[in-house]
């Protein structure tokens, strides 16, 4: 159903190592260390991207984890093919600017919803 959707709404988070993922056995401490070595900039539904918009999950074989069936990196193709409008809801604060920039560089959204201050900061740093 997700691959057939023509409108999607998603949020993003600034990345942080979640000890719960280790405690629950989803990631090992070594996997967390390997992910952190790539300096993640944004987390979208547990798909992590660096500042250049490259998907860190896809740099591992096999993926360290996949908690949902929605393959976020493939949204770029759907957007480019004009099959999908992706609305990215982003927190309003200067701390979200690097995460928003990484998501936009990855081509994961064609509509951004944020506050005016964060939007102005995006214009200044872009």
Into which percent range does the helicity of residues fall?
25-40%
Distance between the termini: 34 Å
Whole-angstrom Rg = 15 Å
Low-confidence stretches: none
- How would you sum up the global shape? globular
Give a count of the beta strands, DSSP E runs of length 2 or more.
5
The overall average pLDDT, rounded, is 83
Biggest sheet, open or closed, and with what strands and sense?
Answer: 3 strands, parallel
Query: How much strand?
Result: 15-25%
- How many helices? 5
Explain how this protein is built.
- It is a single chain.
- The chain has 126 residues and is of the alpha/beta class.
- It has one domain (2-125): 3-Layer(aba) Sandwich (Rossmann fold).
- It has 5 helices and 5 strands.
- It has a 3-stranded parallel sheet with strand order 1-4-5.
- The chain starts with 6 loop residues before the first strand and ends with a helix.
- The model has no long low-confidence stretch (mean pLDDT 83).
Highlighted features:
5 helices; Rossmann fold; alpha/beta
Task: Provide a compact summary of the structure.
The chain has five helices and five strands. It has 126 residues and is of the alpha/beta class. The chain has one domain: Rossmann fold (3-Layer(aba) Sandwich).
């Amino acid at each position: 159903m997700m691959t057939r959707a023509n409108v999607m709404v998603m949020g993003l988070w600034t990345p942080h190592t979640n000890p719960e993922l280790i405690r629950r056995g989803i990631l090992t401490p070594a996997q967390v260390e390997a992910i952190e070595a790539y300096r993640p900039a944004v987390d979208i539904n547990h798909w992590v991207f660096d500042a250049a918009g490259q998907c860190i999950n896809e740099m591992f074989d096999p993926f360290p984890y996949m908690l949902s069936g929605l393959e976020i990196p493939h949204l770029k193709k759907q957007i480019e093919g004009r099959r999908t409008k992706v609305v990215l809801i982003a927190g309003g604060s200067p701390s979200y600017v690097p995460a928003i920039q990484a998501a936009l560089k990855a081509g994961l959204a064609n509509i951004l919803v944020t506050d005016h201050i964060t939007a102005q900061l995006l214009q200044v740093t872009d």
